[in-house]
Design brief:
By secondary structure, the protein is an alpha+beta fold. It has a domain of about 140 residues. It is built from 8 helices and 20 strands. Strand 6 and strand 7 form a beta hairpin. Helix 1 runs antiparallel to helix 7, helix 2 crosses helix 3 and helix 4 packs parallel to helix 6. The longest helix has 25 residues. It is globular. The two termini are about 35 Å apart.
């Protein structure tokens, strides 16, 4: 970890880059997944096959190991034999042609990868090759939310500082404290452990929501509000360890290792493990979101052998049984997505990871909110922190400061200067570029001071080079613009109206125009997605644009009306040299 205040902790060395990584040619489709060293991959999920598992491997430290090839090859580590790969349900929402999704930009349904030389926040839209702009139009409804998630006997508690008013206040404080300080005002010796962050995810935002794995080994999902019920989320602490043990208990012809007996191999969660955490938005039509409530549910509810609720249908039984059936449906999806993320998205050489290699700490964090802004993925944590995944394989985690007037804390997962400049010049990652990644941590004010030229010694000069090569100031500008939009519209995920009949008006949707991967010849193109999951008071429309290099044929389509907003986005992307 690099701390700008601690010269001796600089770990981010500018390695000489030498090509050495092999690349996979497999391509994703339908469902988008990502991870700290990964790409997008096809995942499926037929609504009818929720109950069945699928299995595989893992990834952790974002600084070393080749990942994120053009599209990651399916790993067979952990005896990864997916018994029921979810099948993406056909919908009218646009179904992308396999487009590799990058870790830092986990998109919805199909991933967006693009390149461009300008920086900061772009707003715009365009009539691309294919597009989607719908809330639920044309697709079968999810079976989630047929009944309330909680019943009167569940031990629910309202979490502090989660109401709409409190969250908006915290957003204003974060934005106001996100400023540069002169060197004389820096806090010397500022130091703390990096915040928890998302290392893998599986994106099914066009149907269920988004699954994720935290660096502490927690596995969770954020689910969209469905059938009149609010957005919910689930977290299984130490879920990664459980899934790995289940995988090792299965015999695999491709592995020389013998199966290791695990008494919980047939269980969704360990019967003697910690309670499963369920969260639900407390949306109110009149008062707005009143916060998030949590219930800690005993693992016994999910016992395959003894739980009566496991054998009930969701539309039968009394109120309590129907609510428990809702929990079980979500838990089965968490199990499905977890097996896929930890298995099929496992890191290179991951099959040898044992329990001792997994983290033992519990960050107590959970994801309450996810938003995709074109080609940037945003994760909202329960404590008010946010993780921004950019399409140049960098990520920035920003968490509240020590006090209400303190500068926010930043963990910046970056490339070495030479790798970042290669990426910006070539529009693609150098084969060994992923091996140069490291994390720099300090107060935002310190980083901004150094980035603006106020470095005090040679160590800070090196940090400045890192920040400059990785477009740190432009990324902070993007984050500040995003916070302003949320504040303006009064909630997380607030977005400007997406339809504007005026041809000369400024396009509204935001996306990152800085360094990003350029589509290669004969590639299916890049996808830009705008969607939220878990936003207070409900999620908006799902919108996507698939940009391809085919010539425009608008002139040939006489008499047809075009979405002018979408057309402007395509023009903006063309201007970026896509």
């Amino acid at each position: 970890m690099v701390s700008a205040s601690q010269a001796t902790t600089l770990r981010s060395k500018d390695k000489e880059i030498a090509p050495q990584l092999s690349k996979s040619t497999s391509m994703p489709n339908g469902l988008t997944v990502g991870k700290t060293r990964s790409q997008s991959r096809r995942l499926a999920a037929a609504d009818q096959e929720l109950l069945q598992p699928s299995i595989s491997s893992r990834d952790r430290q974002p600084s070393t190991r080749p990942e994120e090839r053009k599209a990651i090859a399916r790993q067979t580590s952990l005896r990864s034999t997916s018994r029921a790969d979810l099948k993406a349900v056909p919908t009218r929402v646009e179904r992308p042609r396999d487009s590799p999704a990058e870790e830092n930009a986990p998109p919805s349904l199909a991933q967006s990868r693009s390149s461009g030389g300008s920086d900061g926040l772009g707003r715009s839209n365009s009539n691309g090759i294919s597009r989607s702009n719908s809330k639920t139009a044309g697709r079968a409804r999810s079976s989630l939310g047929l009944s309330p998630l909680f019943h009167s006997e569940d031990p629910c508690e309202l979490l502090p500082r989660t109401s709409l008013t409190e969250v908006n206040t915290d957003l204003r404080l974060m934005l106001s404290n996100l400023v540069n300080h002169a060197p004389s005002r820096r806090r010397g010796g500022a130091r703390k452990q990096p915040h928890a962050y998302v290392i893998k995810w599986v994106d099914y935002t066009n149907r269920y929501g988004i699954g994720y794995v935290l660096d502490d080994g927690s596995v969770g999902c954020v689910f969209k509000g469905e059938n009149g019920q609010p957005a919910t989320s689930v977290v299984v602490r130490d879920g990664e360890r459980h899934i790995r043990r289940k995988a090792r208990s299965v015999e695999d012809e491709k592995s020389e290792q013998k199966p290791i007996y695990y008494s919980e191999a047939d269980q969704l969660v360990p019967r003697t493990g910690p309670s499963v955490e369920f969260y639900e938005n407390r949306d109110d039509d009149l008062l707005g979101c009143r916060g998030i409530r949590r219930a800690l549910i005993s693992p016994s509810l999910f016992d395959i052998k003894t739980s009566r609720a496991m054998r009930l249908r969701s539309n039968t039984g009394n109120e309590s049984e129907r609510a428990d059936a809702e929990k079980i449906k979500r838990m089965k999806l968490v199990d499905q997505f977890g097996k896929y993320m930890i298995g099929a998205l496992g890191r290179h050489g991951d099959e040898g990871i044992m329990d001792a290699d997994l983290p033992n700490h519990n960050s107590a964090q959970f994801i309450k909110f996810y938003q995709r802004l074109g080609n940037v993925g945003i994760w909202g944590f329960g404590d008010g922190a946010f993780q921004f995944n950019f399409p140049d394989h960098t990520k920035l985690v920003i968490s509240p400061g020590r006090t209400r007037s303190s500068s926010p804390w930043i963990d910046f997962y970056h490339l070495s200067p030479s790798a970042a400049r290669y990426f910006a010049t070539k529009g693609k990652m150098h084969p060994a570029g992923f091996d140069t990644r490291a994390v720099a941590s300090d107060e935002a004010a310190t980083f901004l001071s150094i980035a603006n030229g106020d470095s005090l010694n040679s160590t800070e000069d090196r940090i400045r080079d890192i920040l400059d090569a990785n477009a740190f100031i432009q990324k902070i500008a993007f984050i500040k613009d995003t916070l302003r939009v949320w504040i303006k519209f009064g909630r997380l995920g607030g977005r400007p109206p997406s339809v504007d009949s005026s041809p000369d008006s400024m396009p509204t949707e935001a996306f990152w125009q800085g360094t990003q991967e350029r589509p290669q010849p004969k590639s299916p193109g890049a996808k830009f997605v705008w969607v939220t999951v878990g936003a207070p008071d409900g999620d908006g429309h799902y919108k996507s644009v698939m940009f391809q290099d085919a010539p425009r044929e608008a002139e040939k389509r006489v008499g047809m009306e075009y979405d002018k907003e979408m057309d402007r986005l395509k023009d903006r992307l063309r201007a970026l040299g896509r």
